[in-house]
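explain this:
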Amino acid sequence: MSVKAFQSNVTSELGNQSNYSLTELYKKLEKSVVQIDVYDSKLGPLSLGSGFIFDSNGHIVTNQHVAEPDSVGTLSYDVLFPNGRVYSAKLIGADPFSDLAVIRIENASDLEITPLRLGNSSLVKPGEQIAILGSARGLIGTFTTGIVSAVGRYGFTGMLSTGENILAGMSSLGVTFDQPEFIQTDAAVNHGNSGGPAVNMRGEVIGISDLGLGDFGAENLNFLIPSDTVNRIIPSLISTGSYQHPWLGLEGVDMTSSIAKVLNLQEPKGFLVVNVDDSGPASNAGLLGGDRVVSLPREGRSISVGGDIIAGIDGNDIRSKHDLLLYLTSKKVGDSVELSIIRNGNPEKLTVILGERPGYDFS
């Protein structure tokens, strides 16, 4: 089922275009946002998160890290509504790369539930007021507000990592993938909010609470999975239990002035390929990785150079890894893309058939 067809089945009383006051907004949302308690058959209570009603069939959207925490036994789920009613649920599908999952309330036909409507996150602008509802610290129905601080954030997990700059495929440290689009907000997000909706003042879901950095000393710095990502992935999770991400199979770095100087380039733009997975699509197409390591004292690092520079894809300029990743979200496994590359100072073109991103054991 296509995303468009699937979304035609998602209806909500929040579909009009008028703005609500905050009190009206809370009243409209409160019956559609739930707390999710996850239990391990051997360990007992294991995880706490939030979610929202996605459709009239009882499907609930949440985070993958909420629905699939590390466990030793069999997982089970309770869905708690603000009125105190509790219903059992089962896992339908999960995607660790986007951190999205779907669970479904059992015997949903017996419930009166109101799905929330997905908004268009590509229209979200910095400064726009939003509200977040969820079970912050286990306090169900906690309502917070704020603004959109920025859009188009990517690779925010790098703030907490060792700085491995890998955005397009396989890393030498293991398989790691960053997402190209996140919404940054200053609205309060706490443990337990994960998986809950962030809405605009029309009550449309524009994002899913995913990461709050308050526990790491970064106040008012929280990130949302955009609703466009939800709209792309959730239908596949419901219908097949998984989502196939297109994959090039390479790692690299954004061009900088220091790298451009080493390579005798007039302008620092493009994505320098550092390493290519031997069995990946890029390797099969003949893309080359680096063959020597150079030191960049000004940047305090060393990198592998001599590989291809990706300057464009299907006629679109690539100035950074963000451009490359963002374009790939519009493609599917099996699609062909034409890469415009610079090899040894000369422009060339390569056709790559996108593969499926390899699995990742997140345990």
Notes: The CA atoms of residues 16 and 309 lie 47 Å apart. The chain is about 15% helix and 40% strand.
